[in-house]
Amino acid sequence: xxxxxxxxxxxxxxxxxxxxxxxxxxxxxxxxxxxxxxxxxxxxxxxxxxxxxxxxxxxxxxxxxxxxxxxxxxxxxxxxxxxxxxxxxxxxxxxxxxxxxxxxxxxxxxxxxxxxxxxxxxxxxxxxxxxxxxxxxxxxxxxxxxxxxxxxxxxxxxxxxxxxxxxxxxxxxxxxxxxxxxxxxxxxxxxxxxxxxxxxxxxxxxxxxxxxxxxx
Length: 216
Ligand SMILES: Nc1ncnc2c1ncn2[C@@H]1O[C@H](COP(=O)(O)OP(=O)(O)O)[C@@H](O)[C@H]1O
Ligand SMILES: [Mg+2]
Known about the structure:
Blueprint: E1 2-9, E2 18-25, E3 30-34, H1 41-48, E4 56-61, E5 64-65, H2 74-78, E6 81-85, H3 96-105, H4 111-124, H5 140-152, E7 158-162, H6 170-185, E8 189-194, H7 197-202, E9 206-211, E10 214-215
Parallel strand pairs: 3-8, 3-9, 6-7, 7-8
Antiparallel strand pairs: 1-2, 1-4, 4-5, 9-10
Helix pairs in contact: 3-4, 3-5, 4-5, 5-6
Adenosine-5'-diphosphate (ADP) binds at residues 11, 13, 17, 35, 37-43.
């Protein structure tokens, strides 16, 4: 489902941020990308999300070579990928309901269908009662659950998470990982970057360890 062949990323600095990355991730895997700060975890996820382009090498997602993909085809492929960030990246001026509706609005569904699907996913993350709240009225853990709801509301086969528990205490961290694990069990391929060794030791998942832009 995801394949990287000899991938490099250089941001124009003296050293490569990713160097000769070779990696295959099968449909339905749960993978932790680990490594210290600066190792290249975010860069790797950005390449998969097509927020950055590889400097060299080949990346295939669902058999599509994203390096040669025409710009107008990117939105379509991106819809197959949900993404969650450390700082949630919610829109604070609109409600939880509207934040989670966002990815569905481009799909041309009716208002009613959108609301139905959003309420279903809010139930899934345990936030039915808070649909009319604004993000800043929620705790950090709740905000991250909203962000996860938004990432999965259109049921993408791939979910990327970049340090999703980085701003949460250890109790909430477990909640979030369990939620990601549940999404995985329902069939998604989940790729989560974390530098948190406790998480990696506690949940026995495939590990891809990066250091200085290389896979160890
Ligand atoms: N936009 C950028 N411009 C220049 N260097 C960058 C940029 N983004 C990341 N880097 C560098 O790339 C390396 C990997 O960064 P990053 O992928 O953010 O690592 P991690 O997520 O593991 O902390 C670091 O040395 C970082 O400074
Ligand atoms: Mg990072």
